[in-house]
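ok trying again, last paste got cut off:
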Amino acid sequence: MSCERDDVAAVIFAAGLGTRMGSDQPKALLPLGGRPIVKHVLDSVVSAGIRKIVVVVGHQRAQVQRCIGNGVAYAEQECQKGTAHALMCAREALRDFRGRLITLYCDVPFVPPDLLGRLAAECAGPGVAASMVTVELEDPGAYGRIVRDRQGKVTAIREAAGAAAEQLAIKEINAGIYCFRAPLIFEVAAEIAPDPVKGELYLTDAIAILAGRGHEIAVIRARDPSVVMGVNTRAELEAAELVVQGMRRGE
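nice, full thing came through this time. structure:
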C-alpha cells in the first residue's frame, strides 16, 4: 500500500553516535549489506511514495549529509536529548505541514514500504491521533511494553527499566515506528517531561498523553520480528547482515 500523497511526511532520526558499536562512526553510516544503514531506511520511505522527508542529523552531520545527499530536508540536533527532542528539532522544517507524520530510526533497516503505507492509512481513521507498529516476542528483554486497558485499547508504552512485574510479563513490544497527526504531535512533544533517570525526552511518552486525552491509538502488529529489528550492537549488526543475505537469496 503506497502513501503517495502530499499529506504524508517522514522524519528519520539519524543524529546518534552509535557508541555501543565501539566506533566513532555515526550510527547512520554503519555498513549493512555493503551500504550505509540509513540508505536502507530511505529506500523504504521513498518506495512507500513519501516525498517529504526530513532527516535529523547531529554527530558528524556533514558526513551524514554527504552520504544521503539532496532530495531530503535536514534538521540539526546538536545534543542528543532523546527522540521527542529530535522530533522537535524537525518542527521548523515541517512548520507548514498538516497531515500524517511517520517517524523512523536510521538503525531499523528492514521496515517494508507496504507497512509504512498501512501505518499512514491507519492514522487516517476517525478519532485516530497516532498509529504504531508492535510485535510479540517470547523474550521481550529491554523493549518497551505495550500497555492496554480492559477494552484492549493502548494506553501507554512502559519502558522495561521502569516497568512493574506484571508489565514486564507483557510480550507485545514497541517497535518505535509511529505515524502521528501533525501539528498535534509537535504540541504534545513540547509537553513531554524529561525522563527522571536519564533526563532525556522520549517520544514513547506521547502515546500516553494522546491516549489520556481520549485519542485513538491504532496498532499494526508485525508478524515478522525482523522487519522491526534494530541495530545497536555488533551482535545485532551481524544478525542484520544474515537477514540481508537471506533476502538476497530470496529466503
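cool. The chain is about 30% helix and 25% strand. The mean pLDDT is 92.
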